[in-house]
Amino acid sequence: MELQFLGTSSGTPSRARNVSGLALRARGSKHWYLVDCGEGTQHRILRTNFSPISLRAIFVTHIHGDHCYGLPGLLASAGLLNRTEPLLIAGPPAVERFVRGVIESTGLRLPYAVEFAAVEAGWTVATLPDFRIEAAALSHRVPSFAFAFTEKSIVRRLDTAKLERDGIASGPGWGQLQRGEDIDLPDCRVARSADYLLPGRRQRKVIVAGDNDTPSLLAEQAQDAQLLVHEATYTEDVLQKIGPGPQHSSARATAAFAQEAGLPNLILTHFSPRYQQAGNGPSMADIEAEARAAYRGNLFLASDLQRYALDRHGVLTLLTDT
Amino acid sequence: MELQFLGTSSGTPSRARNVSGLALRARGSKHWYLVDCGEGTQHRILRTNFSPISLRAIFVTHIHGDHCYGLPGLLASAGLLNRTEPLLIAGPPAVERFVRGVIESTGLRLPYAVEFAAVEAGWTVATLPDFRIEAAALSHRVPSFAFAFTEKSIVRRLDTAKLERDGIASGPGWGQLQRGEDIDLPDCRVARSADYLLPGRRQRKVIVAGDNDTPSLLAEQAQDAQLLVHEATYTEDVLQKIGPGPQHSSARATAAFAQEAGLPNLILTHFSPRYQQAGNGPSMADIEAEARAAYRGNLFLASDLQRYALDRHGVLTLLTDT
User: Fold this and answer.
1) Per-residue pLDDT tens over the stretch A235-258
2) Binding of Zn(2+) 2: at which residues (chains A, B) (predicted)?
3) Which of A27, B110, B159, B167 could form a disulfide with B79 if both were Cys (CB 3.0 to 4.6 A apart)?
4) Does the annotation mark B213 as catalytic?
């Protein structure tokens, strides 16, 4: 599984960070998915290997502008690229009202269909390629969701020693068995696929969360996940100073949850623009130090255009830094 | 007068060019104006000396997304910067419907007032600082306008030789005379301001046009203008191939109009992304060659973040190139 961050700032873009957007795909798949689409997401996409043509669906965590104001422009540009495949947009119902309203008020004509799915707690979609996707409700000023992406198909290996012991010769039949089909043998026996498939490895699962002041709402989803991507808008001291009104998480709160949930990998994102890369004021190093003090797993702080890979063993690696 | 291009691509952004946006201000003024606000305009503003706080008004030429999809994000970011001054948005009525619709559907709360002005042919506003602004109707698939910015106040110089001949001693009185006030002299004479002001120079006037397939619609406005900023989406051959449907101008058509109108300065912008900076395909050099063949004035092809100055004598200079 591959992830690429298109925006990692909260509220407003900065010179280094755009507002939220995350590209996700199964390695080698022709489809990809987008979680959130802040203004300028299409500009970031121009700097990646992703195309608005092969985008299969967009998941919008919540209706705040820094997570959705890039939708109209991305839809328009996909149209100018002559996209014809339907595009799914899944999110809280306000997202459909927003997008339909803009299409209508600006006379936007698209050469492809836009399909909307209204997301609520427990919403699941299994009809998309590569992943089963589930929504989990979060706690924010407006309805906000996390999307959990679970691999749909695992290629299970054949128990070749057993096949040979049972006198089943290698050939096209082995492929059928591996694909889950039972086969008739020349001696009139039937070989059942289930008898010759080795146990599958664990399905990879990645949770991408929207804005949220209560990470523990993801406790159940996190049980079988290898990676959580979650906001850490502030350090704890800044959050205490601002108060609970904005309903965001601190680095400490997110990291402590990931530690308690036993999550092997954590990527923090959605940083307040007040945190600079370096300098005398609040810096990204403050966010990192706070998170490392509370979490002993594999921790990353996302930057724009960073690409990550989660391998079959659930090991997360940063592929490119910017 | 200073202009800075924030976007110079038509339809979609490219890696080098954003969609339409142009900043304009009177040199030394604390206010500035924006014409068009395509997606990502606020990102470009981050790379300039302009701030969403001191932006006085936004003029939207027409409702197409590449000219207005950056409005919601810019409004939101100005709010996060704690802007309190009202902001005027002037454009065809669809612009107000679009912006109000997004504010409503996404629950955007702003700490300042947004005022809308519905632009139609002949619309004028004289209540803004620095400029009187007039709209002229263009020809496009949807209602589209040009905005003409004319300097409001010209500082007229005093005829000091005449003052001395008439025995009016230098002092605070000279300043009053220059500001247009008559003054009482110690010998009971009255010195009239009008008698001592030298003739004013011509007021500078800049026309910034939206999408338009008929440049000659600007013939009247162009009579006393020093600069026209106008689209040249295609070269003539490409326009002929595409046909008149999109209702854009070729470089040749725009340049020929500027030549006929006697405009001393012309900046072309809004280039189709098919024109590359260099390479084997259609290039910016094709646009330039076609325009130069038809126009013998001071010609520029705009690039993103370029700054231009129009001095008191109507001479246009490129201040920085990118």
Assistant:
1) 999 999 999 999 999 999 999 999
2) 66-67, 211, 270
3) B110
4) no
